Amino acid sequence: MTPQELRAFCLSFNAAVEDFPFRPEISVFKVQGKLFALSHLDERPLKVNLKCDPDDAIRLRGEHEGLVVPGWHMNKRHWNTVTADGGLPDRLVRELVEDSYDLVVAGLPRADRLRLDRP
């Protein structure tokens, strides 16, 4: 997956926006103000921090050693850092990004979730 593909995919979700609250080179992708993906898109290898169910996070780290690791500068129980431009199939990276988005949306207040469901 290229940086452009990662950015486009993150922004393809309903109400997703890109923000730069930390530094101009760190892309933070949010839904309703809540972070679901964070990446330094110009860095190689391309890595992205993604929210993950704690049990799945541990399983993924074991199955993809070195390519899925505990989230850098994040809560290690709920976040993974995923190497997106090598080793892992793009399909899996997309699934992990989508899972992260879905987890964040599931944690939003009901009214916000309902607004996201409207066309």
UniProtKB/TrEMBL annotation:
Presence of keyword Transcription: no
One GO MF term: DNA binding
UniProt key word DNA-binding: yes
Pfam families, per database record: YjbR (PF04237)
SUPFAM superfamilies per the UniProt record, alphabetical: YjbR-like
Record's keyword terms, sorted: DNA-binding
PANTHER family: CYTOPLASMIC PROTEIN, CYTOPLASMIC PROTEIN-RELATED
Record-given protein name: MmcQ/YjbR family DNA-binding protein
Species in which this protein is naturally found: Streptomyces purpurascens
Organism lineage: Bacteria, Bacillati, Actinomycetota, Actinomycetes, Kitasatosporales
